[in-house]
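Protocol step 4 of 6: structure prediction from sequence.
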Amino acid sequence: MNHSAGQYALGYSDAETQRLMRQAALYADFTEDLLRRAGLSAGMRVLDIGCGVGDVSLLAARLVGPSGSVVGVDRAGSSLEVARRRAAELQLENIVFSESELPALAVDGRFDALIGRFVLMYLKDVSAALRSLVAHLRPGGIVAFQEMDMSLARCVPETPLWGNCANWIIVDAFDRAGADTRMGSRLHAVYTSAGLPAPRMNLHAKVGGPDSEGPDYLAGVVASLLPVMERNGLGSAAEVDLPTLAERLRDDLRMHGAIVYGPAIIGAWTTMA
């Protein structure tokens, strides 16, 4: 593992692969908005780092069209196998996937855009990594990243079960795994400390009640984090009771007449001089 990369807290199980695809569908409109605002357009050559199972790469490939191209990079070969299969099923010929560590990428040529979603939070020296990554850009290249700030998630009014899951279990588990749960709010500082022009930024969040996607989404994250939780004494499978967790979360919201503000999804984009 490269010294600048942290461990992916959620693992690489089949269940996590499915959760990632559900998450991508949940946030697809937010990410497309960011990429369009950043200036992705037909004919561009795009580098997507930490591409995982390929959702952002697939979205970028659609935006740049057949005259453009996308290279998706990830260190997990199992995730890239899924990404390649999905691209083939969609008959996308303008996208390739490459296995490589960050930030020392094994890619050829220069790119018009460097993009990524929920990846900088796992890099140990993120400013140094970003300085290295932008070396793959052409002059005038776009830098666009989207990251979470989990601390901005809220349940209103706060309820015991949601507070336990969202604040104690998830944030503590991510923190113990070395992830930066507030990376979204740090993007401006990260860009400028890496020597990039100050970015433009925006924020999105999902908001809903007991019948929204929130309970299933949160239960899915807890399921993927359970090994980290058990290793660090944050909770056990018996305590979490995964088979009933989503329904208990829905009941908790109904009982208290509550709504949930999901984690802030913060985008930052700039153009290199």
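Step 5 (inspection) to follow. Residues 1-6 have pLDDT under 50 and may be disordered.
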